[in-house]
Amino acid sequence: MRDMMRQLAAFEPGEEPVLSVYLDMRPQETGENPAVRAGLTILEDRLRQIERTLWPRGAAFDSVQADTVRINRYITEEFPTAAQGLAIFACAGRDLFETVTTGAPFENQVSAGPLPDLFQLARLLDDQETAVVAVVDSNTARLFVTRLGSLDEVDRTTRRYRKNPIGGSNQNQYQRHIARHRANVAREVAAEIERVVDQEGAARVILAGNAVAIPLLREALSPRIADMLEDVRRIDILAPRTEIEEEIAPILERAEAEESRSLADQLIDSVRVSGLGVVGLEPTVWALQHGQGDVLLLTSEPSIDEEQRAELVRLATTSDADVEVVRDHESFQHLGGVGALLRYRHEGLPVAS
User: Measured by CB atoms within 10 angstroms of the end CB, which terminus of the chain is less buried, N or C?
Assistant: First the structure.
């Protein structure tokens, strides 16, 4: 999805507007029509409102009308009903139509502008970093990967590790054999976790399982993977995917919140001590425009309008800067809720007023 974001960020403005659509596609749980997705009602109303602003008819109006037809066809014929979130970027006049479906809902937003609004995609990538979850016992391993709010099992079949049979032996020999078997299983599972982490580009690892298997597995992890470890939970090896998903959701949410607050602390220290940080809209825009920005930080409710916020995210994406959405950080909010950690200092950098 990062490649798609880069392509969207590089999209050039033109006569026809770009529709940026973010929808909460969860069915209603109450009301007269519980199966109806509230986001679709908002989509219909907003598209109608946008069309009305484009009078008299022209290229922009025709483009939005064509987009409306294609969006509705996609939702009717192609949208996977199990998804909870949908993002669409469309501009028929300039041959743009990109969709993203997720396991987490978006905030409903339908806007038309010269460029795609990428803020909610950036926030999704920030909030839903890829994690590998290993559920293990002494003989079995199940590996899962979080992808954009969904938890998917790596293999549809459970991987089991068989004990090698031994002949007549005394109790001590048998116990040593079991210990060797469990240690071998732990090493194999640790190697498989590392493979999946590298394959998926995961940023976090969660271990779950019984009290015998977990300590052995932790010991077998490489230092690099051990540094990614967020939590250990007691989860039964036969637990359904939905139960595992519910157990790990607060762990990942807490880890992301702690990381974002830590980055905000780092930004404030950098502004104060080293100059490798800026706060305020103008200095942040300047730093991103000149390729200085390493991490763009925004509060979830920054004191800037949606158009300015979208431009910051576009600049960050085109310059390969990360985007971090910070929640519940009073000091950063007091500074305006906009800033950037820098790759290097530059003497021409403006100072926030």
Answer: C
Torsion of CA 114, 341, 282, 13, to 10 degrees: -10
Q: Which one is the CATH code of 2-117: 3.30.960, 3.90.1420, 2.60.120, 3.40.50?
A: 3.30.960
Q: What is the pLDDT of residues 65-90, one digit of tens each?
A: 999 999 999 999 999 988 999 999 99
Residue 203, SS3 per DSSP = coil
Q: Which position has the token pair 């825009």?
A: 285
User: pTM of this prediction?
Assistant: 0.81
Give CA–CA dist 19/114, Å, rounded.
9
- Among 29, 26, 25, which Cα is nearest to 71's? 25
Tell me the domain boundaries of the chain.
2-117, 131-239, 257-342
Decide yes or no: CATH 3.30.420.60 for domain 131-239: yes
Q: In the predicted model, what is the mean pLDDT of the chain?
A: 89
How far apart, in whole angstroms, are the C-alpha atoms of residue 14 and residue 222?
Answer: 51
C-alpha span between 342 and 155 (Å, rounded): 41
The answer to whether residues 217 and 137 touch, using CB atoms and an 8 Å cutoff, is no
